[in-house]
Amino acid sequence: MKKHQVMVFLPAYNEEESIGEVIRSIPRHFHEQIEVKVLVVNDGSTDKTVEAAKSAGADVIVSFEKNRGLGASVRTGIKECYERGADIGVMIDADGEYPADEIPALLRPIIEGEVDYTMGSRFLGTIKGMKLHRRLGNYCFTILQSILIRKWIYDGQSGMRAFTRQALLHAEIIHDYNYAQVLTLNLVRKGFRVKEVPIRYKVRTTGESFITFRGYLTSVIPAIWKEMKRPVQKVNIDARTDFSNHLDTLNVREQNF
Q1: What is the domain count for the chain?
Q2: CATH number for the domain that contains residue 78
Q3: Is the pTM of this model over 0.90?
Q4: Smallest Cα–Cα separation from 10: which of 52, 38, 49, 47?
Q5: CA angle, residues 110, 256, 99, in degrees to nearest 5
Q6: Strand (E) positions, 13-159?
Q7: Could you give the CA distance from residue 212 to residue 194 in angstroms, rounded to a whole number?
Q8: Integer Cα distance of 89 and 9 in angstroms
Q9: Chain segment 145-169, per-residue pLDDT in tens
């Protein structure tokens, strides 16, 4: 029986304290026909991120010689998933803020052929402990994103997402600082169906985010404008992927569905 591949990729920059726990918590055996692989994109870390990832069981590690930015890391992760034959690609942050054990729930709408792209939504799940300035920033940018794609979303900055193989092929990120807004704008403008899945939020306890509000204003806003101004072609979306056709029946005995 042919197994279908889910590749989970983690962009990582100096996350030696958290990345091991995240990798170990990724479900590997939630469906008998799914093989889960873990890919780490090491964005020029200067600590022991690579060693911690290897020790925790990462299957593939791709490293940049120097720090290139979150957008570049996500772009590389998406490209590597596609080129390595993944049927579905999953992105999750390496800092432990997102619940890796909820990956099966993130995959379900894709496996069932409902959508092509999912985002884990903390605002539909739980956001207890999120700092006020982060909530307000998220609200502002998510409202802007909702207006632009003409679809209401709740957590446009989520670092937990999943993509069909076709979405992996066509996803474009046009700048290196961040990816969140332009990636969703790009896929939705091309006709890909998106859905948010409620997830838990966990307060970051290690490391420090290098994404700042000032960075958003000076880098992300111009990138959003550039994305919306440039022409994109609609993609002929497969109604159901080969992946979902082979997994039409999700038996009740399967643990995490």
Answers
A1: 1
A2: 3.90.550.10
A3: no
A4: 38
A5: 80
A6: 34-42, 60-63, 88-92, 117-121
A7: 26
A8: 7
A9: 788 888 888 888 899 999 999 999 9
Tokens of 75: 């772009």
Q: In Å, what is the CA distance from 10 to each residue of 74, 150, 171?
A: 8, 29, 17
Whether the pLDDT of residue 223 is over 90: the answer is no
Q: Where are the alpha helices (DSSP H) in 98-248?
A: 103-111, 132-149, 165-170, 180-189, 213-215, 221-229, 242-246
Separation between Cα atoms, residue 62 and residue 50, nearest integer Å: 9
Phi, psi of 107 (to 5 degrees): -80, -25
d(CA 210, CA 152): 27
Sheet holding 60-63, edge to edge: 60-63, 34-42, 4-12, 88-92, 160-164, 117-121, 194-198
CA distances from 152 to 130, 183, 248 (A): 21, 16, 29
Please give the residue range of the domain that contains residue 82. 4-245
